[in-house]
Design goal:
Radius of gyration: 29 Å
Strand order of the largest sheet: 5-4-3-6-2-1-7-8
Largest sheet: 8 strands, mixed
Bound molecules: adenosine-5'-triphosphate, magnesium ion
Strand content: 15-25%
Shape: elongated
Structural class: alpha+beta
Number of strands: 24
Length: about 600
């Protein structure tokens, strides 16, 4: 077989395979071009998630007709005047995006530089269809119709309009965060979905585009080391989400997805945040030329650092310093030898009828104690929950039963509003109240689902939760399933959900956080799976917002109720993520610690 040079149209189509994966990637290229053209205002219009039409209008410097022809040719760019790819300061530099898109869609390019007339050029799947004068204000307008309509192999891999729209929104959001000086607007199917005025400061822009709570719950980052500059905003550790999608990372103003950076963020927040939760951050890293290679990925979403360890160190220390200054210090680790003495211990669940009315009489417990425990534990949170104490040990005056009666002992107090301290006959028990609660919620949901649906508790005032449109769409689709799990919600306008009831077993659930997290969680779910099949994840997310979160003060009665419920629940020794929910320090080990043995 002889070797041949491929025709240009085919070359472009092959390149499109890498650069244009879906509407969102084409849109990203067009918005980047508008930014590179010095636009002060960018308007994006999408139809059907960008599947039928993507339109980007800018007021940048525009192109003269001969440049418009060149722009649609492969490897033609105005952005590398000096052949020095290391010092590129624009978002684009490959000269590939427009010809690639034009080879797999119908592309209309209209442009008008200052002081001259407008011109239009239409290319249909790689073939120039027409060109001629066009009326438009200064700037450029690009319209991409029917992406992949003639490339069935690619079209088939596109997702629903809803999913493609979510990806488009995310792409624009990231670029809008990178450039708070530029005004952005995004319309979807004729409705305004996003606006950002020009000239916002960075924290205001980030908060407006992510989570408004970030405004009052974040710290500004400003940290320099060896020429590397880290800026942006970092959410306080108390503001966390169930997925890492809310971490926005930029290198030299370019939105990137980088495992090194994500790992560094995780490292910075470690010990300040539950391990399965993710911080909200928007970090902007500026590195000197030559320290980073941006030409490692056709879509330019990945970068390679010359000194990854230094970058990681900069991020960890920059974040930690800022968070420390805000009073969120990382707890000093306990000596390893001492930690070794604490251990999770298997406890055989007390054999009771699962979720029956009363407990089997065992170890002389009063009849009905278990039902009572459940009532206390799963009832709405009592007023004491707002107590500002960090740790307390109420005298357990109300006739505490002797510790010997119960495997997990009798509650003696609470530490850091997170751990229950209990005294058992043979040692000291520490319970992670949140992890334990999460497990109990899962087991309860399983049991309730086996018998139909989970009981819900109506809210006195239905709560309106504002979210972005794709998040509302996802929740709306899953609403019937969520109702089975005790969460009743309905659509309330394009960008809000109305929560009518929450699962009763969560106690006074915090509806806003719960619904926001579930929306995040659903984004990561395989659409084919039912929520029952993903019950562990859903129950875990729900339990995070139940009344026994870490950081809530519990009364002695509630603590004991929690311990009894754990004893009666299968698998309660491990949380949904496989970590222990409680550990025990044997009396003998306590004696050793004090040199009595
Ligand atoms: N919105 C716009 N306004 C003005 N000029 C533009 C615009 N879009 C594209 N151009 C011109 O067309 C050229 C080709 O654009 P294209 O996106 O294909 O390549 P690039 O931006 O140079 O590199 P990359 O492939 O990395 O994006 C650009 O170099 C630029 O000169
Ligand atoms: Mg470009």
């Amino acid at each position: 077989m002889s070797i041949r040079r491929l025709p240009e149209q085919l070359v472009n189509r092959i390149a499109a395979g890498e650069v244009v994966e879906r509407p969102a990637s084409a849109l990203k290229e067009l918005v980047e071009n508008a930014l590179d053209a010095g636009a002060a205002s960018i308007v994006v219009r999408l139809t059907e998630g960008g599947l039928s039409r993507i339109e980007v209008v800018d007021d940048g410097h525009g192109m003269a007709p001969p440049d418009m022809a060149l722009a649609l040719e492969r490897h033609a760019t105005s952005k590398l005047p000096s052949d020095d790819i290391d010092s590129v300061s624009t978002l684009g530099f490959r000269g590939e995006a427009l010809p690639s898109i034009a080879s797999v869609a119908r592309l209309t390019l209209e442009s008008r530089p200052a002081g001259s007339d407008g011109w239009q050029r239409v290319v249909d799947n790689g073939v120039v269809e027409r060109e001629g004068p066009a009326a438009l204000p200064r700037g450029t307008r690009v319209v991409v119709d029917e992406l992949f309509a003639r490339v069935p192999a690619r079209r088939k891999f596109l997702r629903s309009a809803r999913a493609e729209y979510a990806a488009c929104l995310d792409a624009v959001r990231r670029l809008a965060m990178a450039r708070p000086d530029v005004a952005f607007a995004l319309d979807h199917d004729g409705r305004r979905a996003l606006t950002a005025p020009a000239g916002q400061d960075r924290p205001a822009r980030v908060a407006a585009l992510t989570d408004r709570a970030l405004a009052g719950n974040s710290v500004a980052i400003d940290w320099t080391r060896e020429g590397l500059v880290l800026g942006g905003v970092a959410g306080l550790p108390t503001l966390h989400r169930g997925v890492a999608d809310h971490q926005y990372l930029f290198v030299d103003g370019r939105p990137v997805r980088d495992r090194l950076l994500v790992g560094a963020i995780r490292g910075a927040y470690a010990e300040m945040m539950p391990r399965d939760r993710h911080a909200l951050v928007a970090l902007f890293l500026d590195v000197p030329p030559g320290q980073v290679d941006v030409n490692v990925h056709p879509a330019k979403t990945e970068v390679r650092f010359r000194d990854p360890a230094m970058v990681r160190g900069l991020i960890v220390s920059g974040l930690r310093r800022a968070l420390d200054a805000a009073g969120h210090r990382v707890a000093a680790p306990a000596p390893a030898a001492l930690l070794d003495a604490w251990r999770p211990e298997p406890v055989a669940p007390v054999p009771v009828e699962p979720w029956g009315a009363g407990g089997t009489v065992l170890l002389d417990r009063p009849p009905g104690y278990l039902a009572e425990a459940r009532r206390t534990f799963f009832s709405a949170a009592p007023p004491g929950f707002s107590a500002p104490l960090q740790a307390r040990a109420e005298p357990a005056a109300a006739a505490p039963p002797p510790a010997a009666d119960f495997p997990l002992g009798v509650a003696r107090g609470q530490v850091a509003r997170t751990y229950v301290v209990a005294e058992a006959a043979d040692g000291l028990v520490l319970v992670d109240q949140h992890a334990a609660h999460e497990r109990l919620v899962l087991e309860r949901m399983r049991a309730a689902l086996a018998g139909g649906r989970v009981a819900s508790q109506a809210l006195l005032m239905p709560e309106v939760v504002e979210l972005d449109e794709p998040a509302c769409d996802r929740l709306e689709v899953r609403a019937p399933e969520l109702a089975e799990l005790g969460l009743e919600l309905e659509r309330f306008g394009p960008r809000a959900m109305l929560v009518r009831a929450t699962p009763a077993l969560l106690g006074q659930a915090e509806a806003r956080g719960l619904v926001t997290d579930l929306a995040d969680e659903l984004a990561a779910f395989d659409q084919a799976l039912s929520l029952r099949e993903r019950l562990d994840a859903v129950a875990g997310t729900m339990a995070c917002h139940g009344s026994v979160r870490a950081g809530r003060a519990l009364s002695v009665a509630e603590m004991n109720a929690l311990l009894r419920e754990m004893e009666a629940t299968p698998h309660s020794g491990q949380c949904n993520h496989g970590r222990p929910t409680w550990v025990k320090l044997a009396n003998a080990d306590i004696e050793k610690l004090f040199g009595r043995r």
